[in-house]
Every structure is written in structure tokens, then in C-alpha cells.
Amino acid sequence: MAYPRGERPPGRPGAPLFSPWWILLLILGGLLAGLGIARGLWMLSSSSEPYLAPQPTSSARTPRVGLVAGHLGHDSGAVCADGLTEVEVNVAIAREVARRLEDLGYQVDVLEEFDERLNGYRAAALLSIHADSCEYINEQATGFKVARAQADAVPEQSDRLVACLISAYRQHTGLRFHADSITYDMTDYHAFREIDPRTPAAIIETGFLYLDRRILTERRERVVEGIVEGLRCFLEGR
Question: Residue 227 in contact with residue 169, Cβ under 8 Å?
């Protein structure tokens, strides 16, 4: 409640609101509190190693994979009698492999045959995807081929990439490794000379468009699975 001016609260008539002892204790308490704050500030300012809030650690960089869709942006590649082109097959395989790898958490670049990004390209692995002839050669013209550069700056890594691809692709497609028809065009493939020499690289001929056409077009999931698992074998050290 409020009191009229000049009146005191009920109590001893004429007694002061605070005794001198209480006033002295309040003053001393204020002085001690002030000294404590000042001491804390002095300790912070005089510390030779100021406190820094911990920073969150960055996660490991996601591996990058380059996939060259053979002939894309350049020409049609092999052309079958009914109009099916090699580039169609290569692009469909490359895009599906890229989608699968991205679902697994990898960064993937789908590159054209003579993509400008190939110059100095740096990645955990580069694979160029092609298919073989659409002409009938003989009954032995079936199967796949994988090769690395003849002059490779990281031969051990590229050899491991090739071995992983051969093993996984053979397992998932049932096609045989057609080693005896690997050509100079494969081992001296132009992209091998353009990319960063530290990038392990390989080229795959996924099959012959004549005798292996069915698996390359109607059962493409086996082809994709073979390539994806071959790359994972290499990238994940399996």
C-alpha cells in the first residue's frame, strides 16, 4: 500500500528504515562482488590462450568418379542395321551406373567423349564405357574387354581397377573376358593422356553389339550391376 507523504510505516515510532550496521554490510557486500567480477575479467584478459569454442569436424570428402559415355557429343560409334547406335547403348549404361553410384553416396560426372573437363581431370577413378562391333565377325565375337593405359602413371592402382571390373562384370553378366581382342585403341585411349596422371583409369567394352545385343539392351541391369560392383570393389578396397 502507499503511505501519505511524511508518514512512516507501522513499527517503532521514529525508527529508521535501515540501521547503520545493515548499511555497512550492504556496502561491504557490493565492494566484494565488484572485486570478484574485476578479478574474473582480469583473468580472462591476461590468459595467454584465450578460450575458443570447439569447431565441428568436417566429414571425409566423398569420392568422385568420372564416367565417359563413349562417343557422346562426338559421333554415333558403331551403327547396327536396324539403326541402333553404340552411343545410345553407352549413354544408357553410363547414366544408370551414375544414378546407382549417386544413390550409394558417390559424386559422379558423366562426361562426353571429348569433354573439356577431361583436361587434368582428377578423381578416385575414371571409366570410359563403350560397346563393340555391330557386325557379325564369328561365333567367338562375344564377351567384354577391360584395359588401362599402356603408359600409366599409377599402374598398380589402375591394374587393381581393371581386375575389380573384370571379376565383377564377368560374375554379373556371365560374359567371358575377351582378352585376346584388346586393341591399341584401348590401351592408348585419348582420355588417358588428358586426365590428371594420378587418376586411376580404365576403358571397358561392355560387349559385342551383334552377339551380345540382348544383354546390352534388354538385360542392361546386369551390365550396370557388373560395372557398379567393379567400381565399388576398387573404391572400397574389397
Answer: yes
